[in-house]
Design a protein that fits this description.
heterodimer; A: 480 residues; alpha+beta; Uridine Diphospho-n-acetylenolpyruvylglucosamine Reductase, domain 3; Vanillyl-alcohol Oxidase, Chain A, domain 3; eight-stranded antiparallel sheet; 21 strands; globular; B: 789 residues; alpha/beta; TIM Barrel; seven-stranded parallel sheet; five-stranded parallel sheet; 35 helices; elongated; binds flavin-adenine dinucleotide; binds iron/sulfur cluster
């Protein structure tokens, strides 16, 4: 389906959009639309019919009202780096590029939250926060991508072992509903100046988190920010075996001393990921791990080191292959100095592989990491792709992110299909083990929906219909 | 000659390396502290992803290659909406990084090949390059216009085809043809002359370097020019001993260095010849101790790195054979050839210059917005972008923006105008020229014909009668270093020696085109000096100033010495008057000038204390003023007796910055009125700052003229003054424009003052010693043009 060019009363849609956002901020030119038709994932390109760049809430409301009236799909977009084709318009329509709504409205350095517009990038917020010695859980993604889009998509950042997912940092929201009404959830709903908490109100924010831009347009977001302890200590170890690494991470995670507790397979520790697959050198560890800790005092740092050493001693006493090692320098910088241009530019992922990158990115119980990894490795090597896998332990729980970063060439349809096939196969394995994919491309959503409880799917559809009766918001992405 | 200039198809593999990650969209650095800023002028202006950085441009390339995008007029327009600045390239880390600019240019070449590019406005340039071998549609003979001043001066510039020289100065079309751009070759040649460097130019035989053609996608034109130039360089090396090609244009520098290197056999062709940017050349001299930079008027500057001398010079290493990583892997970047450090080192070496950096500098410099054909194709956007850069410069507190590229200089200059109070933009060579002593080799400016004699014009106008054209000159001090150098009479001698004083006074007429002459030194302290104020040591570029206040401790010492007119420099002034009257008295009006009675009183007591007294102890103020007023009357009477045609009282200490209009009316006005009543001859009252509020009072003192600064409203002053039968002098800005601005800016301000009705076109205040003569000459030029319209 492509969108109509003219409205029901005969005026042209592009003219109406220009009326709303101004001549220079709406386009239906093919070359303008083209740059929004693809992203780095294996998802096949599709063109939007229009691109608009609103700068105010009122403009967004007017666009939504127009879109509802004309039943034109609307796809919210900030930088399109979600790696899941989530901004590729399944059914054409209006691509709503929000990059120019990029004000940092407030940083409350006492209550520790910031209020931002959707176009605020990690780089912008990082620059602004450091003035107050504050920090945020930056993802290992492009500095030019949106903080809000990451948070509402259950993004994962460098503080997830300490504070949880970035979506858990959300403190308040302002949203334009698919039908054009403006709503607020959290403390800002009661008092326009108060953006500090979602609780203890009913958590209506759930209506807009994890919905892949299909339930409303976020126009403001309150997010928690945190003081930056001055002392950083990164503990690095390696293991010859994924089970040993899991054992170490499980053990260390119970002390909750880390900001980030992550392990990466040898292939992911390389800058760039070897592409096509190459066996690792003999004797090279299968996994490296970095455990980022930050402390306020030397004593705190020493205490953390004592705990870490204890864990290492215990793990080694078990006879595991755990070794205290150096982590490859550039790879370590890429994951500890965030936001990072190294990962941001996909240097560590795609440099050798090509323009494509996709992932089976999942939240998987930690105890399933080893079996899933073993299967993934087999599948990926079968497809001549490197098993560049990451495991991260979340705050206080024994599940976490398990994902394989799969760079691939986009020069031939075969190379893209090969990657897609491998990734979907990997996903199926993970789903069998109780994992849940995040930021799922439609291919994943279909696999999820095959397995979900019918009541969940029904509820999802009912809520979606309630919010978006004409199914115009990023339609098709939920696979329903 | 064969060339390795790739087609878009040849770059296809690189196009497919881009992940669309968008890292190229902003200049982000982890730090700490983290910094982030826009880097893409196109993306900043147009916003859509397709316009954004290399991410967007590569999307276009991809669409063209897959056939999904047609090279229609819309797309061609979008492809030219790029300054080719390389800001995006600096952010990207992937294997296609080294060829990002090539990809964009390859699309342009493709557009030209298909007959859909470049844009219509570019076609005029392209046609001009093809026909005239320069983008400015200028005939060959105009190429040497800028050398005329040297031909008339002491050091005509060598024609390298006739006389051997080790250095070929490759002037470039912008320096030769663009009126504003000419300051660059002029300054460069002047510096070479001052340093005694043996150089020559190709003159009328110089051809365009081809940079503009290359940037626009006109590859055949580029090749023709480059091949001809390479041949010339070889010939000059062989026959005329050329070993070094120096260029002061960033575009030429990039072309000769990088674009020509795409020629098969470039290395052999250029064997024994080095291409250097003039700034690198001067930097080497500095390092070798051969550049004796002297103090300039103190100023804060910021430096704008041009893209072409900066990040475009980066050398990228690629793993061609796969021996380090894998075949085609981008391995790293070497910035050794990027001209980042030399300009900064030079700026820091000029005494008086303080360099303050902007956020976006060096490899992350924010493009001025003028490159890649944008200035021609999208002038409005180019200026808007330049204004952003100027604003960034102003945030540093800089008074001037310095750069080393004529395009940047022009475009930033336009941006500065757009900002309104815009920072002056200067080329680094101009500053170096200013900081170097020596014989520049520049000759005199010619003068146009006239109907009234200058003296007649001045006196008639002062008397309130009609004249053929507005007199042009200076009614305050004009002790400028450039004039001293031009006439050979320099401070400190020219402050005390009557002959030197007179010589410098006449230099205003001879070299700057002034129509009347100043007597009585180059400062406004003669009365204070005669009253016994201690004075600071003058330097070539620093006039006498007050260092001690005889009445600081109390008024006990207040006295008007009987021998007042034989104290200080009055005897020298007497002799100077005599010389001037003898030499030019018939032809030119001669004026005397000192501080006014109020300023003199403030000097005696100390300005701060004196101002406090105006509020707290007014009787003391009156007591001192009584004495200085009498002295003033005597001095003016004396000056008229020496033959002064009019007399200027400079009253900076009574300016609105220091006292309210009410206080002015109470303390200053009565004294001036008394002085004016007591003397027989025309007086001019000069007051600095925004005098709008006291202009009616000034005109109500009995003076014949008032002199105002640019901060005051000329139109209003003329209106008020004409009603009172008073003439207005002014008001081209001395600090911001005449000293730090460009000739064009001085010219424009002069025209504005004439249009506003000034009766005498003059600087708004004393001319700063280091003001470029070229700037000062614009007053005369503007006046002449204005009246020949
Ligand atoms: C190399 C690489 C590494 C990455 N690493 C991580 C990582 O470690 N952790 C992580 O979380 N992410 C990671 N990402 C993914 C992504 O970069 C981040 O999640 C990023 O912050 C998304 O921002 P964006 O601006 O690109 O969002 P987009 O891709 O533009 O949008 C993401 C989703 O949000 C929706 N959306 C956008 N704006 C709104 C709005 N205002 N209202 C409602 N819906 C909206 C879109 O429709 C889409 O569904 C990585 C990406 C890359 C390329
Ligand atoms: S050009 Fe480089 S930095 Fe820009 S989007 Fe492509 S890969 Fe990323
Ligand atoms: S070269 Fe400059 S203007 Fe062109 S896309 Fe890159 S950053 Fe933007």
């Amino acid at each position: 389906m492509t969108s109509p060019v003219d409205t029901i009363d005969g005026t042209s849609i592009i003219d109406e959009l220009r009326e709303i956002v101004g001549e220079a901020s709406a386009s239906s030119a093919k070359h303008v639309r083209y740059a929004y038709s693809y992203d780095m994932s294996f998802v096949l390109p599709k063109l939007p019919d229009f691109v608009v760049m609103p700068t105010t809430v009122e403009q967004i409301q007017a666009i939504m009202r127009l879109a509802n009236r004309e039943k034109i799909p609307v796809v919210p977009y900030t930088a399109g780096t979600n790696i899941g084709g989530l901004c590729i318009p399944e059914r054409g329509g209006i691509l709503m590029d929000l990059k120019r709504m990029n004000r940092i409205i407030e940083i409350d350095d006492e209550a520790h939250y910031a209020v931002i517009e959707p176009g605020v990038t990690h780089a912008m917020l990082a620059e602004a926060l450091q003035v107050f010695d504050l920090r945020f859980g930056w993802p290992v993604g492009p500095p030019s991508a949106s903080v809000a889009s990451c948070a509402i998509s259950h993004g994962i950042g460098g503080l997830n072992a300490r504070y949880g997912l970035n979506s858990q940092e959300i403190t308040s929201m302002e949203v334009v509903l698919p039908t054009g009404e403006l709503v607020r959830v959290g403390s800002c709903a009661i008092n326009g100046e108060a953006w500090h908490s979602l609780l203890p109100l009913p958590q209506l924010d759930g209506l807009f988190k994890g919905w892949l831009g299909s339930s409303g347009v976020i126009t403001k977001l309150g997010i928690g920010v945190h003081p930056t302890p001055p002392l950083l200590k990164v503990f690095t170890v390696s293991c010859a075996d994924v089970h040993d690494m899991y054992s170490y991470m499980l053990n260390l995670s119970k002390y909750e001393i880390c900001d980030d507790l992550t392990a990466v397979s040898w292939w992911l520790s390389q800058v760039p990921i070897p592409s096509p697959y190459r066996p690792k050198p003999d004797g090279a560890p299968e996994f490296f791990s970095f455990a980022n800790t930050t402390s306020w005092t030397e004593k705190e740092r020493e205490a953390k080191e004592e705990i870490w050493q204890m864990v290492v001693d215990e793990e080694q006493a078990k006879g595991t292959s755990l070794k205290v090692t150096e982590y490859p320098e550039e790879a370590l910088r890429a994951r500890t100095e965030l936001p990072s241009q190294i990962v941001g530019s996909t240097k560590n992922y795609c440099k050798e592989g090509g323009a494509g990158i996709s992932w089976p990115g999942t939240f998987t119980p930690a105890k399933k990491w080893a079996p899933v990894y073993t299967d993934w490795k087999r599948i990926l090597i079968d497809h001549n792709l490197s098993p560049a896998v990451r495991m991260s332990m979340y705050r206080g729980v024994h599940y976490g992110m398990l994902r394989a970063m799969i760079p691939f060439s986009k020069e031939t349809p075969e190379a893209i299909e090969n990657a897609r096939h491998a990734i979907v196969e990997c996903l199926k394995v993970d789903l069998e083990h109780g994992g849940i994919p995040y930021k799922p491309p439609v291919d994943f959503a279909i696999e999820i929906n095959k397995r979900v409880h019918p009541g969940y799917l029904d509820l999802l559809k009912r809520v979606k219909h309630l919010l978006d009766p004409n199914d115009i918001m990023n339609p098709g992405k939920l696979g329903i | 000659m064969d060339w390795n200039i790739p087609t878009l198809e040849e770059l296809e593999h690189s196009v497919w390396r881009c992940t669309a990650c968008g890292t190229c969209k902003t200049a982000y650095d982890y730090g700490p502290p983290a910094t982030n800023a826009d880097i893409c002028p196109a993306g900043t202006e147009f916003g859509f992803e397709g316009y954004m950085a290399s991410k967007g441009k590569i999307a276009f390339a991809r669409g063209i290659l897959t056939g999904e995008l047609e090279l229609d007029q819309d797309l061609v327009d979008a492809i030219y909406k790029c300054t080719l600045c390389g800001g995006c390239q600096n952010q990207c880390q992937l294997d296609h990084k080294p060829v990002i600019i090539e990809m964009i240019e390859a699309m342009r070449r493709r557009a030209v090949e298909q007959g859909v590019g470049p844009l219509p406005s570019h076609k005029i340039i392209a046609q001009s390059i093809a026909t005239y071998s320069n983008p400015y549609q200028g005939p060959r003979r105009v190429r040497t216009d800028w050398t005329r001043a040297f031909r008339k001066g002491s050091k005509p510039i060598k024609d390298i085809q006739k006389e051997a020289a080790p250095i070929l100065y490759f002037v470039g079309c912008t320096g030769a043809y663009n009126q504003a751009g000419r300051v660059m070759p002029t300054a460069t040649a002047s510096v070479f002359n001052k340093l005694g460097i043996d150089f020559g130019i190709l003159g009328e035989d110089e051809l365009c370097c081809g940079s503009t053609a290359m940037r626009l996608g006109e590859v055949d034109t580029f090749k023709r020019l480059a091949e001809a130039n390479l041949e010339t360089f070889q010939r000059l090396h062989r026959d005329q001993g050329v070993e070094t090609i120096v260029t002061s244009c960033a575009g030429c520098f990039r072309a000769l260095h990088k674009d020509y290197a795409l020629a098969v056999g470039y290395e052999e062709a250029m064997e024994g010849i080095e291409v250097v940017h003039v700034v690198d050349y001067f930097h080497r001299l500095l390092q070798e101790g051969d550049l004796d930079l002297q103090a300039v008027e103190p100023r804060v500057v910021t430096y704008h790195d041009p893209c072409h001398t900066g990040r475009h010079m980066a050398a990228f290493s690629v793993d061609e054979d796969g021996s380090t990583q894998y075949p085609g892997a981008y391995l790293g970047q070497d910035d050794a050839e990027c001209v980042y450090d030399a300009p900064r080192a030079l700026l820091e070496a000029i005494p008086g210059v303080e360099l303050r950096e902007m956020v976006r500098i060096r490899a992350n410099s924010y493009c001025c917005g003028g490159g890649g054909g944008v200035m021609t194709g999208f002038g409005e956007w180019a200026t808007k972008n330049a204004a952003k850069r100027i604003a960034e410069g102003e945030e540093t507190g800089a008074q001037e923006m310095v750069t080393i590229c004529p395009f940047c200089r022009n475009n930033l200059g336009e941006g500065a105008k757009r900002v309104g109070h815009g920072t002056p933009v200067r080329d680094l060579t101009e500053l170096i020229d200013e900081a170097l002593a020596g014989e520049s080799g520049l000759g005199k400016v010619s003068k146009g014909g006239r109907t009234m004699k200058p003296k007649e014009r001045v006196l008639e106008r002062l008397a309130g009668r009609a004249v053929d054209k507005t007199p042009v000159g200076c009614t305050t001090t004009y002790g400028m270093v450039d004039l001293m150098e031009a006439c050979g009479a320099a401070r400190p001698l020219a402050d005390t020696d009557p002959v030197a004083m007179a010589t410098l006074a006449l230099a205003g007429v001879e070299h700057a085109g002034f129509e009347w002459v100043k007597a009585m030194g180059w400062d406004i302290v003669p009365m204070s000096e005669a009253f016994g104020c201690a004075l600071g040591e003058p330097r070539i570029d620093m006039q006498y100033s007050i260092k001690g206040h005889p009445l600081a401790e109390g008024l006990d010492a207040l006295d008007y010495p009987a021998d007042f007119l034989t104290r200080g420099r009055f005897p020298m002034f007497e002799e100077q008057f005599r010389i001037l009257k003898d030499r030019v008295g018939e032809e030119y009006a001669v004026y005397g000038e000192t501080e006014g009675p109020f300023t003199c009183a403030a000097n005696l007591v100390g300005t701060e204390q004196f101002m406090r007294w105006t509020a707290k102890e007014p009787e003391k103020v009156q007591q001192v003023l009584e004495v200085t007023k009498n002295a003033m009357i005597d001095v003016i009477k004396w000056a008229f007796a020496q033959g002064a045609d009019y007399f200027v009282m400079a009253e900076p200490s009574s300016g609105p910055a220091l006292m309210s209009p009410r206080s002015w009316e109470r303390f200053v006005k009565p004294v001036i009125t008394e002085v004016a009543a007591a003397v027989d001859g025309p007086l001019v009252l000069h007051i600095c700052a925004n005098t709008d509020k006291i202009v009616p009072l000034m005109c109500d003192t009995g003076v014949a003229g008032i002199s105002i600064e640019e901060k005051a409203d000329m139109k209003y002053a003329v209106e008020v003054a004409e009603r009172a039968g008073v003439a207005v002098f002014g008001n081209v800005a001395t600090a911001t424009t005449m000293f730090m601005g460009t000739p064009e800016e001085v010219y424009d301000e002069s025209i504005a003052a004439l249009e506003a009705g000034t009766h005498f076109l003059t600087p708004g205040c004393g001319i700063a010693p280091r003001s470029p003569l070229e700037n000062v000459r614009q007053l005369r030029k503007a006046r002449d043009d204005f009246f020949s319209r």
